[in-house]
Design brief:
Helix content: 55-70%
Number of strands: 0
Largest sheet: none
Radius of gyration: 19 Å
Order of helices and strands: HHHHHH
Number of helices: 6
Length: 220
């Protein structure tokens, strides 16, 4: 009677999901998913007729969103330096390509949000979120594997995605709403792929939560 050797096991469900995650990430990169240009064209500002206090709240919301995208550029730039130095072992090429593509997304998202701020007569916000910057700077040196990096990244990416989703319920400027609506789904793609790389189900929630969204006080 044939059978498996004692003690031999096939790949676990988590191993299968991780492998599938790397394949999915590769396909996502190859097809250019999420790389469409984000535009800030739209109807005239709905906030222009509102009270100045409302406009300032709108500006703070956009500055916070831009600061998170700036942080994404910083975080992935630092992660790529460490990937090339071998801090996380020998990463598959798809991991490096994923980090490069996601960094590009954050850079483009920051530009789009800053175009809206400029159209509102405000200066572009070019600094990383100061609160989360401390978390990134403190956390990156302690990471030792691709799995560590993925777990670390998904916390940040989830906060970014949730912030954009929360902002959609608060913004009134038509240009700001249009840009945020284009950005939020791409950030959620980042989260889903990172979940799969960790061996987790990519869509654990029926609705996107907002409990981890960053407050506007981050930039005040």
């Amino acid at each position: 009677m044939r059978g498996h050797a004692v003690g031999s096991h096939g790949p676990s469900r988590r191993d299968v999901l991780r492998a599938a995650g790397l394949v999915a990430a590769g396909a996502w990169i190859t097809t250019g998913c999420g790389s469409q240009e984000v535009t800030s064209n739209g109807p005239p500002s709905l906030s222009a007729v509102g009270a100045s206090a409302d406009i300032e709240n709108e500006v703070l919301t956009l500055q916070t969103a831009a600061s998170l995208e700036n942080l994404g550029v910083y975080a992935y730039t630092e992660a790529l330096k460490r990937l090339h130095r071998g801090q996380f072992g020998s990463p598959p090429p798809v991991v490096v390509a994923f980090a490069e593509r996601v960094r590009e997304h954050h850079a483009e998202h920051a530009k789009a949000l800053n175009r809206v701020l400029t159209a509102m007569g405000k200066r572009p916000y070019t600094q990383p979120d100061p609160q989360m910057l401390l978390t990134v700077k403190d956390g990156l040196p302690a990471l030792r594997s691709i799995h560590d990096l993925s777990e670390f990244s998904v916390v940040f990416e989830d906060a970014v995605a949730q912030t954009h989703v929360r902002n959609l319920g608060e913004l009134t400027d038509a240009r700001a709403v249009a840009v945020t609506a284009q950005i939020a789904p791409v950030e959620q793609q980042h989260v889903a792929l990172l979940y799969v790389v960790e061996g987790k189900y990519p869509a654990p929630n029926d609705f996107t939560p907002t409990s981890q969204a960053r407050p506007s006080t981050d930039v005040t």
